[in-house]
Each structure stands twice: as structure tokens, then as C-alpha cells.
């Protein structure tokens, strides 16, 4: 089939490339000329395993094209997918301005019988609104607007797209639904479940799914807090919960609060939708508040650890919102670092992929090329992202180079039993029952280096 993809972000580009992999002819369009120029040269705007190789293969085969000319891109296409951003707007509502603009831009050029489909995460009613926008431009033109929400995760986007748990097709017209079913035929043939429904349900499925996953994270974070008070171990508790098939084991790892480009804005949009339609969502409303509080709480724990150290320095390991991505949108680091800096803490940091993007948002951080350099002479090491490489840090090497041996592992990557051997005071999440490290071992003289600058604890 002939497909146009509007927007070449994480979702648009990955989806476009994967649709080419399924055998379709795909043109990807973006209003960002620089991005399109780079893509034509094979340079991706983000790091995502497998996308660059597949893109290059399909460009060579002539199945994948990039353009800034939206009108040209959508003319004579069977399906036009809109995958532009839907960021957080006022009062938590989704900002649909990019979707509306895209609809206005493609309206004059789409051919009769085109199926326009919304890949972007959009609130209930958006497919109908986009239909009205295009109809107001094109009058009697015969076309359809459908919903096909995307569930891929950054870091495993290609695998998620090609082997999804389900494909959701929301269409209020049988023929339009059939067109999308045909698009996904190579996956449906493999037995991937299909949910075929109306646009309203499809739109709600996406928000409800993200809200539910975020609730799982919020729940396990609260249980981890409880474990710390009762000498429980969250990994045992999570395993015991997760093996129940009604619950499932994913999203049951405690952390510094969820972030990323989806959960924070989608939970807010879901709650706002509930308020707008007089069906409040108090579980999600509470979750949103608690998740922000959790990030602040981590920063406050760090400051308490540093309270009697002069001119403290913290080394952050991981600024991406999760591992295997360079995306820092709403990451824990973006919330925690400014709180530390405002309190007078110097911050050094390392992330394998996300440093360039984070540096633009965290200007006063000293960036380093490896974890050991980032933790050199620091008073406290703070692990915020679950990069696999951090599991095998050389603790003996760190113990020699850190000024004070305090490690706060917000992803439970390290073995608590190992820590006392290297003289670390080790903090992690929800591991109240495992042996605690000996009380902090200080490098002595370092504690009294320079005039003591007291920390400003947030109120
Ligand atoms: N990132 C994820 O993991 C993920 C997963 C599932 C769903 N989603 C949803 O998919 C949508 C896109 O997310 P993303 O992370 O890919 O966004 P993104 O910000 O990475 O990319 C959006 C792209 O759209 C382009 N764009 C904006 N207006 C345009 C227009 N009028 N015409 C052409 N291009 C235009 C931008 O230049 C940008 O390149 C959002 O609604 C998001 O919630 C994201």
C-alpha cells in the first residue's frame, strides 16, 4: 500500500520505517526541514536500536522517502497517518494544535477515498474533529478519519511495532477499517490480536492503557516505601505479585517516579478528559500528584545525606527517562538536578546516550564520558536510569575515587550485600530487609575541605 506519515518523531519515523519493512511504500513528511535533510543523509534525530539500519535498507530499495512537501506527500496515498506531537497543554488537557495544523495542511491535497488515521495519542473526539477540519476545506470529498493508537516503547520500538501485543483499529466505517486491516495484514497473519472498534473507543484505549501502566508504577513505588519501613524486600514482593497472571510482572520495579514523553502527559490528559466529561478519575489524579512528589522526595533524601558535608558534589548516573533511549523528556534527572543545584550542590553526570539532549536542559552540569569520571571526587553517586552497564560498576574503583562513599541506587541495580565490603553507605528503594551498609565511611579530610557551605533544603 501507499502510505504517507506526517511527523518523523519517535513514533512517526519508527512506524514509517517498520511499514516499509512490511512491504509498503512509505513517504515520511515533516515540517522540520533540517530533520528531513538529515534523514535523507541517513542521520536519525534520536537513538533507537534498529531504526537506522532498516531506514537505510528501505531508502536504498526505494520504498522509503523523506520530504518537507506535505501536499505532495499525501496526494495519491491509500493511508495518511498523522504522528505529530500532542504535548501537555493548559490544565493538563492534551495540546492538539499540531494535530489540527497537520489536518489543515493535508486537507487541500488528499485524494478521494483516502483513509486518514491518527497515530498520535489524542483525546476522545479528535478523529471526529479532524474529520470536520478536513471536510470544512474539502466539502463533498469522500474520505475517512480513523484512529490507530501506537503502543511502542522507546528503547524497544522496532520489536514492539513488529510484534505488538495487539493492534487497535478505530474506525466508524467498515471500508476504512478494512483498509487498515489490509495495512497490518503481515502482522495479523502472524496471529497478532486485532481490536477493531470505533474511533472513540480506540482513542480511550490508548489513554486508559497508559494510565493503568502508570498506576502500576505508582503502586509499586508506594509498596517499596512500605517495604523500607517494615524490613521488607520489594523485589520478592513484586515477584510474588507479578507471577499472578491477572497482574503480570511488568512495570513492577520501583524507581524515582515515571517520566518520558508519554506517561506524564497522558495521565494528565486522561484525568482532564474525566473532569471534562464529569467522570472524574481520582486514582489517576492522585497518582499524578504522588509521582511529582516522588521525584522531589528523592532529591530531599539526597540532600539529607549531604547535610553535614561542605561544598557537596553529586554524580548522577543516567539522565534518560529510561534505559536504551536518548529521550530525556520529563526524566527524573530533569526534576531532581535543579532541586540539588538550588540547594547548593554541584552536579556532575554521565549517560551513555542522552547527554547531548540533557545538556541543553541542564546547563550547569559537568558532563563526563564515563561513569567513573562522573563519580570522581563526588560525595554521593545517584543512579537514576536503569542502564545495564551500571549493574557491573567496578565498586573497588569507585570506592577509591569518590570523596564520600554514598551510593543512592534509585533502580536497585546493585547488590546491597556487596556494598559494605567496599565501605559504601548504600541506599536503594524498598529493600528494608536486606543488610544495610555500614554507616557512611568518609574519606576523612575530604569532609572538611574548604569553607562549609550549608545546603538550602527545599521547604
Ligand atoms: N514517543 C513514544 O514512545 C510514543 C509512544 C506511543 C505514542 N506516542 C504518541 O505519538 C505522538 C508522537 O510522539 P513522538 O514522541 O513521536 O513525537 P516527537 O515530538 O518526537 O515528533 C513529532 C514530529 O512531528 C513533527 N511535526 C509537527 N507538526 C507537524 C506537521 N504539521 N506536519 C509534519 N510534521 C509535523 C515534528 O517536527 C516532529 O518531528 C504523540 O501523540 C505521542 O503521545 C509516543
Automatic annotation (TrEMBL):
The active site is at residue 262. InterPro entries: 6-PGluconate_DH-like_C_sf (IPR008927), NAD(P)-bd_dom_sf (IPR036291), UDP-Glc/GDP-Man (IPR017476), UDP-Glc/GDP-Man_DH_C (IPR014027), UDP-Glc/GDP-Man_DH_C_sf (IPR036220), UDP-Glc/GDP-Man_DH_dimer (IPR014026), UDP-Glc/GDP-Man_DH_N (IPR001732), UDPglc_DH_bac (IPR028357). Pfam families: UDPG_MGDP_dh, UDPG_MGDP_dh_C, UDPG_MGDP_dh_N. Coiled coil: none annotated. GO terms for molecular function: NAD binding; UDP-glucose 6-dehydrogenase activity. The keyword Chaperone does not apply. Keywords: NAD, Oxidoreductase. It catalyses: UDP-alpha-D-glucose + 2 NAD(+) + H2O = UDP-alpha-D-glucuronate + 2 NADH + 3 H(+). Residues 315-416 form the UDP-glucose/GDP-mannose dehydrogenase C-terminal domain. One of its GO terms (biological process) is polysaccharide biosynthetic process. It is an enzyme of class 1 (oxidoreductase). Substrate binds at residues 151-154, 206, 251-255, 259, 322. Pathway: Nucleotide-sugar biosynthesis; UDP-alpha-D-glucuronate biosynthesis; UDP-alpha-D-glucuronate from UDP-alpha-D-glucose: step 1/1. NAD(+) binds at residues 30, 35, 86, 121, 154, 265, 329. SUPFAM superfamilies: 6-phosphogluconate dehydrogenase C-terminal domain-like (SSF48179), NAD(P)-binding Rossmann-fold domains (SSF51735), UDP-glucose/GDP-mannose dehydrogenase C-terminal domain (SSF52413). Its EC number is 1.1.1.22. Belongs to the UDP-glucose/GDP-mannose dehydrogenase family. NCBIfam families: NDP-sugDHase. This is UDP-glucose 6-dehydrogenase. It comes from Kumtagia ephedrae.
